[in-house]
């Protein structure tokens, strides 16, 4: 029996990831609120499934380096990571935009951009011919605009509530994002017997052609 290891993001996408994988036939029942970071589940076919609970931003490295055979991660984080993983499925949930955000009406030259996505922010600045310095921050990114730390930020917009609450403006959408199922390229060959059916089951669930 081929064992599988999956890297799942522990944050806002965890429950939807686990639910979708269950609907695709995997036996996963991670106890919430515990401190265990690694969980093993015996599958109906006798194989063992290991689930690693990771920061969303750490999923690409775990999958690319082969510690996990596959995983779930936001497309935004996947683009930022620049890792060479196979990306067979858009899972649909976790939809958001990665946007350039400024104070409403701001017209000054953009000399500094703050972001949790420094590579994507730098690529955007380069594309636009902006000689802007990029400052990497870790959270509440919009504050950088409000305080003058940066002239603009590159960050997630989902409902737009954060923008409205802080009188900010979405100037340009750099990319759209949603959760992706990603697979290690070597595992795709060596564990083909487990991974191909899993991808096919996930696809059937997403297309609504699998029993719920
Ligand atoms: N409103 C939102 N804010 C942030 N991320 C969102 C939002 N809506 C959807 N997402 C997606 O969820 C992912 C964030 O998931 P999660 O909450 O696990 O990460 P985080 O705690 O923000 O950061 P880290 O990547 O460091 O774990 C984003 O990468 C994005 O793909
Ligand atoms: O358009 P909205 O629905 O308001 O969502 C967008 C906000 O949500 C995220 O922040 P999060 O709460 O994840 O905190 P963080 O800034 O610490 O990542 C993101 O960074 C935005 O600030």
Note the topology:
Elements: E1 4-9, H1 14-23, E2 38-42, E3 48-54, H2 59-64, E4 70-74, H3 75-81, E5 86-90, E6 96-103, E7 112-115, H4 118-127, E8 133-136, H5 143-147, E9 152-157, H6 161-165, E10 168-177, E11 179-183, H7 185-190, H8 192-206
Parallel strand pairs: 1-3, 1-4, 7-8, 7-9
Antiparallel strand pairs: 2-3, 4-11, 5-11, 6-9, 6-10
This protein binds adenosine-5'-triphosphate and 1-O-pyrophosphono-5-O-phosphono-alpha-D-ribofuranose.
In CATH terms, what is the fold-level topology of the largest domain?
A: D-Maltodextrin-Binding Protein, domain 2
Strand content: 25-35%
Q: What pattern of helices and strands is seen along the backbone?
A: EHEEHEHEEEHEHEHEEHH
Q: What's the overall average pLDDT, rounded?
A: 96
CATH architectural arrangement of the largest domain: 3-Layer(aba) Sandwich
Q: Which stretches are poorly predicted, pLDDT < 50 over at least 5 residues? A: none
Strand order of the largest sheet: 2-3-1-4-11-5
- Tally the beta strands: 11
Domain ATP phosphoribosyltransferase catalytic: 55-203
EC number: 2.4.2.17
Pathway: Amino-acid biosynthesis; L-histidine biosynthesis; L-histidine from 5-phospho-alpha-D-ribose 1-diphosphate: step 1/9
Family: Belongs to the ATP phosphoribosyltransferase family. Short subfamily.
Structure description:
- It catalyses: 1-(5-phospho-beta-D-ribosyl)-ATP + diphosphate = 5-phospho-alpha-D-ribose 1-diphosphate + ATP.
- Belongs to the ATP phosphoribosyltransferase family. Short subfamily.
- It is built from eight helices and eleven strands.
- The chain has 212 residues and is of the alpha/beta class.
- The strands form two sheets. A six-stranded mixed beta sheet has the order 2-3-1-4-11-5. The chain has a five-stranded mixed beta sheet with strand order 8-7-9-6-10.
- The longest helix is centred in the C-terminal third of the chain and has 15 residues.
- The protein is elongated.
- Adenosine-5'-triphosphate binds next to helix 3.
């Amino acid at each position: 029996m081929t064992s599988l290891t999956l890297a799942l993001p522990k944050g806002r996408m965890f429950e939807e990831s686990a639910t979708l994988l269950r609907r695709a036939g995997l036996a996963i029942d991670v106890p919430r609120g515990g401190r265990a970071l690694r969980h093993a589940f015996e599958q109906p076919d006798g194989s063992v499934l290991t689930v690693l609970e990771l920061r969303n931003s750490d999923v690409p490295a775990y999958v690319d380096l082969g510690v996990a055979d596959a995983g779930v991660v936001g497309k935004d984080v996947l683009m930022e990571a620049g890792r060479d993983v196979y990306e067979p499925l858009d899972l649909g949930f976790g939809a958001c935009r990665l946007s350039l955000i400024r104070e409403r009406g701001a017209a000054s030259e953009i000399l500094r951009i703050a972001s949790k996505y420094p590579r994507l922010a730098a690529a955007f600045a380069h594309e636009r011919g902006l000689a802007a310095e990029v400052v990497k921050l870790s959270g509440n990114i919009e504050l950088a605009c409000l305080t003058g730390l940066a002239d603009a930020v590159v960050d997630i917009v989902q409902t737009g509530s954060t923008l409205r609450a802080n009188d900010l403006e979405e100037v340009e959408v750099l990319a759209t994002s949603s959760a992706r199922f990603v697979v290690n390229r070597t595992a795709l060959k060596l564990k083909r017997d487990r991974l191909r059916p899993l991808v096919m089951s996930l696809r059937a669930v997403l297309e609504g052609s699998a029993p719920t």
